[in-house]
Task: structure prediction
Amino acid sequence: MTSPAEQEKLLRAAHALVDQEAARVIVAPNEPEPGFWFGGGNMIEDADGSLLVIGRFRNAGDSRTGLHKGDRGLELAIFRSRDQGQTFKKEMSWSKADLNIDGLTVLSIEGAALRRTASGYEMFVSNEKEGLPYPPGLDSFQKPGTGVWTIEHSAAPSLDALAELPGYRTRIASDDPRTCHVKDPFLYEVGGELIVGFCTHPFSWSSSNTAFARWPNGATAPTETVHNVFPRGFTWDVAMTRVTSIVDLNDRHQLVFYCGGESLRNMDEHATAVKRPRGYSCEEIGGVAFTEGADIHRIQRLSVNLPAFISPHGTGCSRYVDVLATGDFFYVTWQQAQSDGSQPLVYNRVPRSAIEAILA
Result:
């Protein structure tokens, strides 16, 4: 059992990783304006020690009124750094048209994840597709110009070969009204098994939730999916709990980073209410939890009553945290709201020794 004192150390470690003041922009969005960002992906270490970052460029657009209004998620891209995160250069990218599948038109590219294996590389990417209907009997809830989110997978022996999207197929989808939208995959390996986590939305878009799929090594599809494994909270994260990263701190504890908010829409506040970011769709704020022994079925919140991570700029949005753990460092990326309304991908590098000192 993790004691209150240990939980306090875990929270301190989380804040050392997602340090809002130490954050440095590594990939800027296309415009310094509201509705523009880059992120929603992860970072991996390549065989030569360089760093690879995958994410999507998003331009202004609104899925609530139909994605034909604005570009929204228009480009998936991989960047590489050969100087331990000081600079990043675009390696390859895909447009929405490149990701069309099974005769369906991609309206918006969403979150993605990259993985390096003994056989090469795997990529998971979520897209909203025009032509996919809502579950039977609920079709009237689908707004014109909108689609349904699914998660696609591709695998290749090299990064160059991945550019051609070999074996690109839809692998995670749902026809359950409670979970019919699936998106924003993230990856966690435990006990030699790959866990693909992802976000789900009901047909009504009234909440954002977390699910896990077990994906055996070498498989092209998951064998089991568990929904609502980390239920939404009761306070600041009552509307959204979207896990984006799980990282091993040591042999005992793992930190679980998630995006949250009180509502899917921006809330009108009482004139005398405490002014604070509350989090809403596309402007989520950050939470953190932990597990013991990598038991993903027993995630315990550290940010119970208030969020853990708020940008000091703009709306306060701080979301899509990803942590890469190497032998010497923890490399942390996330989308951070700026005063101009945009959300660039920001970065922080923390020596492993610094986290070990906090937990000692």
